[in-house]
């Protein structure tokens, strides 16, 4: 009888070990898509205008403005971790704390990365049916200014067209709530930098 009890104890301990260590998946964090899977067309400079109020009988004053905008896109994420321990610990979730974008072009030029802090919570779904959507800045204004300001149009009437095609490696990192282990995922997307036609009345739209 003692051997039976001892055997059951060993079996229970083994099952507990498997439950704790065997339910962690490599690659549980996934980037499903960036910008719906299509290249980002990034305008180096935006031209706009706004109208100042005028005195009765006076023509309105139109002010021309320009800016180098940032580009925000949607990212879709999944976390398919099975979780640790007993089912009563659910729901499991991942916290994404940082997004890094590394840029390069076809000639092999490497640009400085853009790094930003974030706080995206992704509930775990082992079946992979749940997608978490969030928005992040794929091309910050400061980064675009640093590398492409000299390629910007001087006025809205100047020539339009592509300036460069870049590959962006997007890496998201964070931690698992239950295990506190580090998690990461990466994916690639394309950015087409250029000067494109602007509708002055629709600045920032």
Itemize the secondary structure elements and their pairings.
Blueprint: H1 2-21, E1 29-34, E2 40-43, E3 46-52, E4 61-67, E5 71-79, E6 93-105, E7 114-123, E8 132-139, H2 141-148, E9 161-176, E10 182-195
What does this 3D model show about the protein?
Strand 6 (about 95-105) and strand 7 (about 115-125) form a beta hairpin. The chain is elongated, with a radius of gyration of 25 Å. The strands form three sheets. Strands 2-10-9-6-7 form a five-stranded mixed β-sheet, with no helix packed on it. Strands 1-5-8 form a three-stranded antiparallel β-sheet. It has a two-stranded antiparallel ribbon with strand order 3-4. It has two helices and ten strands; from the N terminus they run H-E-E-E-E-E-E-E-E-H-E-E. The protein has helices at about 1-20, 140-150; strands spanning about 30-35, 40-45, 45-50, 60-65, 70-80, 95-105, 115-125, 130-140, 160-175, 180-195.
Supply database-style keywords.
205 residues, five-stranded mixed sheet, 2 helices, mainly beta, disordered N terminus, three-stranded antiparallel sheet, 46% strand
What level of helicity do the residues show? 10-25%
Q: End-to-end distance, in Å?
A: 76 Å
Number of helices: 2
Q: Main beta sheet: strand number and arrangement?
A: 5 strands, mixed
What is the rounded Rg?
25 Å
Q: Which strands sit side by side, in order, in the main sheet?
A: 2-10-9-6-7
Structural category: mainly beta
Low-confidence stretches: 1-24
């Amino acid at each position: 009888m003692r051997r039976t009890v001892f055997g059951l104890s060993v079996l229970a301990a083994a099952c507990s070990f498997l439950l704790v260590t065997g339910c962690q998946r490599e690659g549980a964090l996934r980037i499903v898509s960036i910008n719906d899977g299509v290249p980002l067309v990034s305008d180096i400079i935006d031209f706009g205008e706004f109208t100042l109020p005028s005195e009765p009988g006076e023509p309105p004053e139109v002010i021309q403005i320009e800016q180098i905008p940032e580009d925000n896109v949607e990212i879709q994420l999944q976390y398919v971790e099975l979780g640790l321990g007993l089912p009563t610990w659910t729901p499991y979730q991942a916290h994404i704390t940082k997004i890094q974008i590394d840029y390069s072009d076809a000639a092999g030029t490497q640009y400085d990365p853009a790094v930003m802090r974030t706080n995206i919570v992704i509930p775990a779904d082992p079946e992979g049916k749940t997608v978490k959507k969030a928005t992040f800045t794929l091309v910050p204004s400061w980064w675009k200014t640093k590398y492409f300001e000299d390629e910007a149009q001087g006025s809205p009437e100047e020539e339009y067209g592509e300036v460069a095609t870049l590959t962006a490696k997007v890496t998201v990192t964070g931690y698992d709530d239950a295990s506190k282990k580090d998690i990461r995922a990466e994916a690639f997307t394309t950015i087409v930098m250029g000067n494109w036609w602007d509708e002055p009345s629709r600045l920032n739209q």
